[in-house]
């Protein structure tokens, strides 16, 4: 569990940068892309030794897995959900997310955040496929004693999960990380859904993107999040 400010950037920064930022930046946690066929950046720094070192320095880590993307999404994703494959893909991707996180030294009890990008939630068939996939991913993660989280856009992918939660759907992620670029570094006043949803330290809010920041002489372009939710368990 971590409460405070977090950042994410496409490629995990070098250890020297993480050390330079530790204690000089406002951040206490960093999101890292641990896997998924739709992961967009190479991760030359992201190794088990890097995870151990940054964790020993005091950083908390937020594992992101860029799994299959919605069937109605624009653009070209290497892995797409279909109605026919949603359940099987979710199960295999959930198992793969655990394997990737475990190989990095992130132990059972870690929260793994499924990254689903924006799509048209008015497309019912598309939304249903995303939900089926997410539920299967969650079941697979939980069966291996990890925790399931979800990252998505407040007006689309995250909204679909919040709607399902409000309706009492089973097998949903326990934490919701919503992208809402309002500049508000909080997880309460900015929360765009019913107040009771994902309460009790189960929210992240990505509130600003593409910010160039320099601390300790090291510069990185990051997205900013307010965090009050589970993170990786290391050590």
From TrEMBL:
**Gene3D superfamilies per the UniProt record, alphabetical:** Glycosidases
Q: Which InterPro entries match?
A: GH, Rv2525c-like_Glyco_Hydro-like
Q: Which residues form the Rv2525c-like glycoside hydrolase-like domain?
A: 19-226
Q: Which domain of life is it from?
A: Bacteria
Q: Does the keyword DNA damage apply?
A: no
Reply yes or no: does the keyword Hydrolase apply.
yes
Q: What keywords would UniProt list here?
A: Hydrolase
Q: Name one GO molecular function term.
A: hydrolase activity
**What is the name of the protein in this document?**
Glycoside hydrolase domain-containing protein
Source organism per entry reads Kitasatospora paranensis
